[in-house]
Amino acid sequence: MPEGEKIPVAANVLGTIGTVLWCVQLAPQIWHNWRNKKTDGLPASMMFLWALCAVPFGVYMILQQVPIPIQIQPQMFGSLCTICWAQILYYSQGYSLRKAVLAGVLAAALFGGSEALFILTLRIPYSKGITWPALLFGIIAAVLVTIGLIPPYFELWKRQGRVIGISWFFLSMDTLGALFSLLALAAEGTFDILGGIVYIVVLLLELGIFTSHLIWRFRFRELREAAKTSGMSIDEFLERSSNNRGFGVGRLQNGGEEGPTVIEARKCPDDSVTAHGSSEAVPG
């Protein structure tokens, strides 16, 4: 936006909403991990790349001298990502609590120290009009954010499109944060190409995750109905059914190559649930 031109109220409001959402988006995920005591389906690489991207993102924002709330955004984001990453190390990677906490603290110290060093190093040349290093850091941050959303797609592929381990509150807040931030850019009258590309890519990739799970729910609606009839969750039903030889769906959902057996659940006199195509019953 040209210097001295007032930012439209709509752009300020939309940008503030997007910033707030992106500052606290991972709080529901951290709570989800702690409550369930597991992080299956939440890639460690995703959280680490996002924590790492907070370094160039913070450098770019601070050198650009954007409003203080937006400068705080990368710091909040990076801190929450580091906590999530440490949780994954503890719940899924076999780290002891002490080692996971130590890894998180060391990573946070390394990221914070690196960001401070880059800012102090680049602030003087930036004040003299040498701005390309700041732009380079902005590009690196954009690339890391985008790459961080690729690992969840490998998890989707392993589970035939099903999303597990990712909090829907987190994903919804992240998607809405990208949407409101994108709308704020559009409302300014001028369009920041770099920021716009980041928001569009994040929006599309996260909508892809939503769509993948909706397709899974449609494809395996018989499976969900069978689990509901048996009084078990999907995970409990799949774990129970995978122990029965010939039950194709259990093998499929755990990464097997067999096609799913068409399930038609029904209650039997002995309170067991059977699946057509399988000669064995799954106890209710």
UniProtKB/TrEMBL annotation:
<dbReference type="GO" id="GO:0016020">
    <property type="term" value="C:membrane"/>
</dbReference>
<feature type="transmembrane region" description="Helical">
    <location>
        <begin position="130"/>
        <end position="154"/>
    </location>
</feature>
<feature type="transmembrane region" description="Helical">
    <location>
        <begin position="193"/>
        <end position="216"/>
    </location>
</feature>
<dbReference type="InterPro" id="IPR051415">
    <property type="entry name" value="LAAT-1"/>
</dbReference>
<keyword id="KW-1133">Transmembrane helix</keyword>
<dbReference type="InterPro" id="IPR006603">
    <property type="entry name" value="PQ-loop_rpt"/>
</dbReference>
<feature type="transmembrane region" description="Helical">
    <location>
        <begin position="100"/>
        <end position="124"/>
    </location>
</feature>
<dbReference type="Pfam" id="PF04193">
    <property type="entry name" value="PQ-loop"/>
</dbReference>
<feature type="transmembrane region" description="Helical">
    <location>
        <begin position="44"/>
        <end position="63"/>
    </location>
</feature>
<feature type="transmembrane region" description="Helical">
    <location>
        <begin position="166"/>
        <end position="187"/>
    </location>
</feature>
<protein>
    <recommendedName>
        <fullName>PQ loop repeat protein</fullName>
    </recommendedName>
</protein>
<feature type="transmembrane region" description="Helical">
    <location>
        <begin position="6"/>
        <end position="24"/>
    </location>
</feature>
<keyword id="KW-0812">Transmembrane</keyword>
<keyword id="KW-0472">Membrane</keyword>
